[in-house]
Structures are given as C-alpha cells and as structure tokens.
Design goal:
192 residues; 4-stranded antiparallel β-sheet; 4 helices; binds adenosine-5'-triphosphate; binds magnesium ion; RNA_CPDase; Cyclic_Pdiesterase
Length: 192
C-alpha cells in the first residue's frame, strides 16, 4: 500500500559519520578554490557543507541509528591532526577534492572502525579503499588543471560527528545529530 511505503520512507534518515571542518577552514578553502579553479571546472560545494566523510550509512531507521550511536559512543581513541596537502580529480564521479598525502593513523583507524560497525549493522560499505577527502566541486567530469599545491590547511581533530543529509528545497544540507570527543594528550603534533 502506498501509504505504508511512504510512512516507512519518512522514518528513514540518510546519515553519515564525518569530521567537521571549522568555519575558518571552510572559508579559507572557498578562497583557495576560487583562486585555483575556473567557474567551468564544476559545481562548488557551499562552505557550510564541506566535511570529511568517515563512514556513509545510507538511509537508516531510528533503531539502526541508535545502535550505531551507542557503538560510536564506546569508541575510545586519541585525537589527531590532518593536513590537507593533496588535491585531485575523480573524473568518473565528477569530484574534485582536497585530501592528505599521508593520512594519520588515527584517522584511518577511526574510519575503519565506524565502517566495520556500519557494515555489521547492515549498512553496505563500498569495496573501494577509504580515501579521506573533502569534496570541493561536483559535476567535474571534464579534464581540469589541478593545482600543484594546496594551501595546507591543518585540522586538529578532537571529535567526530553523526550527520543527517536532508534535501531542503532541492539543496542538500547536513544537520549534525551527535558528536563524540576524541581523547586529548599523548598526541604529538606530527603523529601520523
Ligand atoms: P548530493 O548527493 O545530494 O549531491 P552529497 O553527496 O553531499 O550531495 P549525500 O549523498 O547525502 O550528499 O552524501 C553524504 C556524504 O556521504 C557525502 O560526503 C558523500 O560523498 C558521502 N557518500 C554518499 N554516498 C556514498 C556512498 N555510497 N559511499 C560512500 N560515501 C558516500
Ligand atoms: Mg551524494
């Protein structure tokens, strides 16, 4: 019955775990992007939507979200820093991104843990290796000159968050649902 299908749909939320980018870094990235890519390179992601995805969950029920939130709350890991020193283009998916040449171990561990917990809860995970990145432009399917260098923004990561992705008047917006701290201390500035 159409009614039932619709009800089921509305109780599902599209969710993902991600690292938040501080507003100052989002703004720096916007300026760097404007200086380094022509308008025809692709569709710019708005500053407020810039993030680094750790694990994509898809459309999930409240019950599944609750389980994943409980598991996220039991993660005990130290914070780390991430330097966005790499930039690239995936023409197949039309994405231009900022990433890191040497992702810190803490970042890889956190993503791995969240992704395996998600998979165990039935959230299908891509078989592609995790490539931490911040999407800058979408719809970038044509060849584009990629700048030789980034401006090396450095994120000090002391928490991670669960986000909901919602369509508001045709635009994708993310809402932070919950955040969890990563422990401080014992962190060397360049601990990779
Ligand atoms: P839109 O799809 O509306 O253009 P978006 O891709 O930013 O915008 P979502 O599709 O809701 O929004 O994705 C939320 C986050 O999860 C983004 O970082 C996106 O790259 C990532 N993501 C989406 N689908 C997958 C997937 N199948 N596997 C891994 N990550 C994904
Ligand atoms: Mg998408």
């Amino acid at each position: 019955m159409i009614d039932t299908v619709d009800k089921t749909k509305t109780s599902l939320r599209r969710m993902f775990f991600a690292l938040t980018l501080p507003e100052a870094i989002q703004q720096d990235i916007v300026q760097w992007r404007a200086a380094n890519f022509p308008p025809e390179a692709g569709r710019p992601i708005v500053a407020a939507n810039m993030h680094l995805t750790l694990a994509f969950l898809g459309e999930i029920s409240a019950a599944k979200a609750q389980v994943l939130q409980q598991q996220a709350g039991r993660i005990s890991q130290a914070g780390f820093s991430v330097t966005l020193d790499d930039v690239g283009h995936w023409p197949g998916s039309g994405v231009i991104w900022l990433g890191c040449k040497n992702p810190p171990r803490g970042l890889l561990q956190l993503a791995q843990l969240l992704r395996s917990q998600a998979a165990r809860s039935g959230c299908a995970q891509t078989s592609l290796p995790f490539h931490p990145h911040v999407t800058l432009l979408r719809g970038a399917t044509r060849p584009v000159v990629i700048p030789a260098k980034t401006n090396n923004q450095r994120l000090c990561v002391d928490h991670f968050s669960l986000y909901e992705s919602v369509l508001v008047r045709g635009r994708t917006r993310y809402t932070k649902v919950q955040s969890w701290p990563l422990a401080s201390g014992e962190r060397k500035p360049d601990d990779v």
